[in-house]
Amino acid sequence: MKHQHKYDANGKQLCCTQEEKIYTKAGAKDLIEDDSCCSTKSKKHQHSEDDGHNHEHSHSANESTFKMFSPSAISLVLLLTAIGFDNVFTADWFTGWIRIIWYIAAYIPVGFPVLKEAFESIKEGEFFSEFLLMVIATVGAFAIGQYPEAVAVMLFYSVGEVFQTLAVTRAKANIKSLLDQRPDEVTILVKSEAQTIKAADAKIGDIIQLKAGEKLGLDGELLSDGASFNTSALTGESKPDTKSKGDTVLAGMINLNKVSQVKVTTAYTDSKLSKILELVQNATAQKAPTELFIRKFAKIYTPIVVLLAVLIAFLPYFFVENYVFSNWLYRALIFLVISCPCALVISIPLGYFGGIGAASRNGILFKGSNFLDVIATVKNVVMDKTGTMTEGVFKVQEVVFDKQFKEKEILQMVNTLESQSTHPVATAIHEFVGKVDTSIKLGKVEEIAGQGLKATVDGKSLLVGNFKLMDKHSIPYDIDPNSIVYTLIAVAYDKKFVGYITIADVIKKDAQETINKLKSLNIKTTMLSGDKSTVVKYVADKLGITNAFGDLLPEDKVNKVKEIKAKNETVAFVGDGVNDAPVVALSDVGIAMGGLGSDATIETADVVIQDDKPSKIPMAINIGKQTKKIVWQNITLAFVVKGIVLILGAGGLATMWEAVFADVGVALLAILNAVRIQRMKF
């Protein structure tokens, strides 16, 4: 069956290219594929053990660095020896066919693989490949007697390709480093006896026995009284996290101090870590506009370069008096070598992979390199209050009820109703009141967005929420809610105002640092919250947030963001990614806090901050800025150096050695620059 080329949605060829060759050698082919059969996005296609893809994905990953460099080493030794015989240790016998055969022998180790790739590309209908440029240039150099240059061009090209492969391998290792955090086996207790099984075979309800120093393989509930865990695999933070009995613990966490028992609550493939891994792997398929442009550019660029080289070789015949074909052919060959787009095609994706990898190491997940570009241009950060800038851990401060009501009785009813909600306020009331009274029967339970809860108890209405809820049901009250700074939970029973409960939240430790860093980046800050305006203003004033608005419904938040976007300024919204789904969708970049706690968060947001730390917001923006900076440095470097040497080469002022630098040298410099982001501290 005739091979069919694969193309992505933007018309970029996915197969039979130098880029595919390098990424396949690095065992990272999935990083460049979008909709091809091996893509991580193509969930329906499953590889069998012998479908032919297995070898392609893995054979070169195990190839040693020595083996990759050995053809280049052989070629280098033969080339240096030949140059020595030509210029230093002149030998009478090193002439004629012996000299030609020696240089051919030096050429074959590095040239044959490229010749083969060029032939296969032509056979499959792809004439204008990077391989063909190098073959024409080097074979042409042999034809006009420039043997050392011919070998040197192909040698440096091959060395550059090896370095590119190593760089891509490193990028892949950084992006997928989380894969090592998920153990293949777990120890479960069966009738009090420990049995080791594959983690994928563990069932919901199994009890895992986790020794000190072991990594947890699945999500579960801690059964032991308490344990400390290293969560760096998930959050990028090495600080121990102490968990209590009944707390959720996640795959990838490392047990630090004592043998613990964990009850499995989620299947292996549905664990938070599995979802994070899938997110990181799929991130490489979402290409940034810069990357897409370069790929389209390279597709058009290569045939134009070949045409120009032909014109350089033959057109001067009609305009130059002393036309010497070999001289102009040499200039055309130099032009071809310089024109190879390797520096752009490899280094730019590598820069974005580096950015995604650097972010994931710091507990920040980008859903695609396109969001690295967008976040770098953010001018406004709009944030929710609860759970974003505050801990979201509320504590009851005071209960103020009218004396005509029995406080304990009303609190029990409120506690029973709030047990229907997962809101942090409900948790605070539950912790304050205690165990839910199961003898209280609720009827017609209803949650009213942005206002609170409604139900009936013994046929009488019970309202628990903010004062908007009281106003909606025409419940009269004799206090001014704005006079109290704390969050207020108003209670009404049997159409009478009972009183209120004050609840306070704590500002996160790094919230102030976050706002200071955002200001240093000249980013405007706005806080939007459904909480009462006095509380929102209090938190905003304390942190120095420019604008703050409270008492907002979800649609009010949408309108506020629309107002900012109307000024043609890029907006990032930071929230929980669930309740704020409409405003997250509207913003240019949706950032979700606490990806470990919510599957919906990972689904909704463009960027997920896994450890709830707001200081990761400016860090994410900085990673985006640095990535974009490095990408544009590489684009500028490649175009400027190549442009200069192209002009010199066409004018006969540059030799094949300058051409080698303009191609392989610039490619290596660009790759080294792209790799820098993987070492940066943010």
From TrEMBL:
Pfam families: E1-E2_ATPase, Hydrolase. The keyword Lyase does not apply. GO terms for molecular function: ATP binding; ATP hydrolysis activity; cadmium ion transmembrane transporter activity; metal ion binding; P-type zinc transporter activity. It catalyses: Zn(2+)(in) + ATP + H2O = Zn(2+)(out) + ADP + phosphate + H(+). It is an enzyme of class 7 (translocase). The chain crosses the membrane at residues 68-85, 97-115, 127-144, 150-169, 300-320, 332-353, 630-650, 656-675. InterPro entries: ATPase_P-typ_cyto_dom_N (IPR023299), ATPase_P-typ_P_site (IPR018303), ATPase_P-typ_TM_dom_sf (IPR023298), ATPase_P-typ_transduc_dom_A_sf (IPR008250), ATPase_P-type_domA (IPR059000), Cation_Transport_ATPase_IB (IPR051014), HAD-like_sf (IPR036412), HAD_sf (IPR023214). The keyword Zinc-finger does not apply. It is found in: Cell membrane; Membrane. SUPFAM superfamilies: Calcium ATPase, transduction domain A, Calcium ATPase, transmembrane domain M, HAD-like. Its main location: membrane. Gene3D superfamilies: Calcium-transporting ATPase, cytoplasmic domain N (3.40.1110.10), Calcium-transporting ATPase, cytoplasmic transduction domain A (2.70.150.10), HAD superfamily/HAD-like (3.40.50.1000). GO terms for cellular component: plasma membrane. Keywords: ATP-binding, Cell membrane, Membrane, Metal-binding, Nucleotide-binding, Translocase, Transmembrane, Transmembrane helix. Residues 182-281 form the P-type ATPase A domain. Its EC number is 7.2.2.12. Belongs to the cation transport ATPase (P-type) (TC 3.A.3) family. Type IB subfamily. This is P-type Zn(2+) transporter. It comes from Flavobacterium capsici. The lineage of its organism: Bacteria, Pseudomonadati, Bacteroidota, Flavobacteriia, Flavobacteriales.
